[in-house]
Amino acid sequence: MNSNWLDITKEQPKDGERVLVWDNYYGEHEIMTYNEDLKCWDDEYGDEFEVELDAVLPQEPDTLRVKFWMHLPEEPLK
Question: Where exactly are the structural domains of the chain?
Answer without folding.
Answer: 6-71
